[in-house]
Each structure stands twice: as C-alpha cells, then as structure tokens.
Specification:
Length: 472
C-alpha cells in the first residue's frame, strides 16, 4: 500500500524549474534594490545605467540554475524521466561547502573579467582584483549554501551585490588610499613603458582568471566524484538487496500433481515491498502467502523479508492459521514503528480434506473461482503490526478439481494511466474471469493488460499477482 510521506527525494523537472525561478527572483530583487539604493534617479524596470536590469535578470537565472544538478534515473530505461537532485537534503554539510567553494572559485572569475572589460586605461591594484573576485564568487556561493533559507539568502545577496557596486570604495578603504580617479574616455596617449605595463597587467588578470577556473573545476570534479562513488556503492548494495529478495520471493511457477502456483512481481523501485511465497507443510498441504509492506523500496523489502522469516518459523510449529497470524502480528508490532505495517492474504490448502482455509489481514480479497462462479473471500481483520492484540479469523471453503484462486496486491488496483484513471479491482476480477477460457496464464494476461493500460505512466507501488490452480 502506498503511504504519504514528506517528499525529500529528487525533484521533478517542473519542481526544479519552479525552484530555480524562485531563486532567480530573489537574486533579481537583490540586484534591483541595491541598484535603486545606489542611484534612485537613474533606473527603470528594463533600462538605466544603474540597474542594468536585463543583464541582472539573465545572471539571476544563470545563478539559479547552478543550484540544481540534473541526473537520469538509473533504472528508467527508454522512458527515462529527468529529475533534479535536491542538493540541500542529499549532500552532507561538508559536501555542500565543497560545492559552494567550487562555485565560488569559478564565478569569482567574473571579477577580473569585468575589470578587464570595463576598466579604462589605468592600473588596477591587486587588492581591487581580490575584492571584485571575492564579491562575485560570494554572490554565487551564497545560493548554494543558503538556497533553502530564503531570508538569509536575500540578506547575503544584498550584501554581496552592494559590495560589487561599491568595490572601488571598499578597495580604497582597505588600502587607505584615495578613491581612484576615472580617466575621461577619448584619445589617450601612452608611453611605451605604460603600454607594456598595461599589457602585462591584462595578462596577469587572464592568468588569474584561468587559475580560478582551474581551481573551481578541480574542486567541482572532486565533489561530483565523491557523489558518484557514493551512488555506485549505494546502487551495488541495492542490487545485492534485490538479489536477496528475489531468492525470498516466489517467482515463476510451481507445479505438482494436484496444485499449480504461478506468481509475477513487478516492483516500483529496485527493491520491492511485496511478498509472495509457497510453503509445503507436507505432501498433502501447502500454504500460499501474499503480503504487502507499507511503502516500497529497500525499507519495505526488509520488512517483507523479516515477515517471511517469522512466518516460516511459525508454520514449522504446525500452529493453526489464526494463531500463526496472531503471533506474526505481535512480532511485527514489537519490531516496527507505528507507521509501518503489512497486509497479508494466506490460504492453507488441504488436499486430503479438499478444503481451503483462507485469512486476510487488511488485504484485498482473494478471488476464488468455484464451479465456474467467482467469489470474493475476505476476513474482517486488521493489517499486521497495527494493533498488538488483534485477533484473526479464517474462512473454510471446499474445492473441486479445476477451481482457481487469485491473489493480488494494491499496486495493480492503484495503478493509473496517462489520463489519471485507476486500473481498479473490478478490472482485475473481469480479467481473472476471462483468463479461465484462454490458453494464456492469468498472471501473464493481467500483467500485459496493466502494461497497455498505464502506457508511459510509472508504477507508484509494487504489483504482485498469484494464481493457484487446483488439479485434484
């Protein structure tokens, strides 16, 4: 079953764009306020020497874009969806600081570049270059460090933009010298020594810019490399967990002279939370179990594996089905947190007595086709782990050769197509009935229909289908 959780995972592309434009708006607002404060009589929404609003708006969007890292889901195949990693929740504080340093170094190059482009023919002090580079880099780094703290981010942006606007005055204050006098534009006569000095200064600015870019690039590669290593390690562990779960779950077919079982499981993530199994108690009795852990993914898979281990021990004690579920419920209640639980459908088939004992613990009903008529069998019991002292009951049904049972989890019921329509339990029941006359197996038929139904829409929960055919 699907639980509602706080979304701290990857952002969708739409959410990424919204977040980027929010950050862009904050950057633009800071530019605008500082520009108006610097010269309140020479500005306009898209013009004016003080505001330079179009350039600021473009820079705002560029700076906002660095706050998101785009990646591709590793398991999405040809219908892959591009998502953005939320760097503020998925990076540690140290990694976030390293990323901010990389961005600081790379965007600090704006300082010497703007001095190179805009400064008239005059010498530029080293202190002026450092001040310009510091505020230009800090402007971008503050977005990385405080992207989710909008008030702090806005204050930092106002300070850094004010520093950029007043870098000449700040340089003069730090050096103790008089503010530099701007040489009037026009024809400027330089001696050979002055020309060579200015050329050397421009070369030094270029070398300094290249060094900043190189340092920022190396730092950025370091951060991304660490993230890649962590993701590879995590992906390896997930694949190992998936292999372990595959060995725990029933996949494919089990056929005996009197009963045949077929199961198909499709997971929404690499590791699923559905649990399907078949226990052979003796040569005359088998137990079919289908469970569904709340949520999906690795956590749900671990809970399902735990339930299998406990259930196997209880069945080995030859306890009655209600007692098995009662003790299983108590164990799960004591081990899991209150927001985690499992639903389960269990059927014990006795060949000698031609009887099926069925119990459902908060699970979808079991479909039974008996003498051509389909019946929904369900017992009024809570899911496992919800209430410590819950009691469980069973329903006894006689069967004939040719009868069938069908179990399913709510992932198929809640599956939606591109129009937003749900697959629904009635469609499952209709397909189960239709599969009786066809050569194709029930599980394969319903799985194919589900694939056609949802099109490119992804599953939001795991899907498990199990059919039991009684031969004698």
């Amino acid at each position: 079953m699907q639980t509602i959780e706080n979304k701290k995972g990857p952002l969708t592309r739409k959410e990424m764009m919204v977040e980027s434009f929010r950050l862009g708006a904050i950057v633009y607002a800071a530019f605008f306020i500082v520009s108006v404060a610097a010269n309140p009589f020479a500005w306009g929404p898209f013009w004016g020497p003080a505001s330079r609003t179009p350039i600021m708006l473009i820079m705002a969007l560029v700076f906002a874009g660095i706050a998101e890292i785009v990646r591709r889901r590793p398991d999405s195949g040809k219908n892959s969806e591009r998502v953005a990693v939320d760097i503020w929740t998925q990076l540690t504080r140290r990694e976030l600081s390293m990323l901010a340093l990389a961005v600081f170094l790379m965007f600090a190059t704006i300082g010497p570049v703007t001095l190179f482009m805009n400064t008239p023919f005059r010498h530029i002090s080293v202190l002026r270059v450092l001040v310009s580079s510091f505020f230009a880099g800090s402007l971008s780094a503050s977005i990385i460090l405080f992207g989710r703290r909008k008030v702090i981010l806005f204050i930092c942006l106002v300070i850094t933009i004010a520093g950029i606007s007043a870098q000449g005055e700040i340089t003069s204050f730090l050096s103790g010298a008089e503010p530099e006098q701007i040489v009037a534009r026009g024809v400027v006569t330089l001696t050979e020594a002055e020309r060579e000095s200015l050329e050397m200064q421009r070369i030094n600015l270029g070398v300094f810019t290249i060094m900043l870019i190189a340092a920022g690039y190396v730092t950025f590669i370091y951060v991304i490399g660490r993230q890649g290593h962590k993701r590879v390690k995590l992906q390896t562990e997930i694949q190992m967990a998936k292999k372990i779960q595959d060995t725990l779950n029933l996949q494919g077919k089990i056929s005996k002279d009197w009963v045949a079982v077929e199961a198909i499981t499709v997971t929404a993530d690499e590791v699923g939370g559905d649990y399907v199994d078949c226990f052979e108690l003796n040569e005359h009795e088998v137990v079919i179990v289908v469970g569904d852990a709340s949520g999906h993914g690795v956590g749900a898979g671990i809970h399902s594996a735990m339930a299998k281990s406990v259930l196997k021990c209880l069945l080995d004690q030859k306890l009655a089905v209600p007692e098995v579920l009662r003790q299983l419920n108590r164990t799960i209640f004591n081990l899991l947190t209150r927001d985690k639980y499992l639903t389960m459908a269990l059927a014990r088939i006795d060949r000698q007595a031609n009887v099926i004992e069925i119990a459902t613990a908060g699970h979808h009903p079991v479909f039974m086709q008996h003498a051509g008529v389909i019946e929904e069998i369900r017992t009024p019991s809570l899911g496992l782990g919800l209430y410590q002292n819950a009691a469980y009951t069973t329903v006894l049904k006689s069967y004939l050769p040719g009868d069938r049972l069908f179990f399913f989890t709510d992932g198929i019921v809640e599956a939606v197509n591109e129009e937003g329509s749900m697959f629904g339990p009635e469609r499952v029941k209709e397909l189960f009935a239709a599969s009786a006359a066809g050569a194709e197996s029930c599980c394969s038929l319903i799985a194919d229909q589900l694939t056609r139904f949802r099109g490119k829409k992804k599953l939001t929960d795991d899907v498990s289908l199990t059919e039991v055919r009684l031969k004698a």
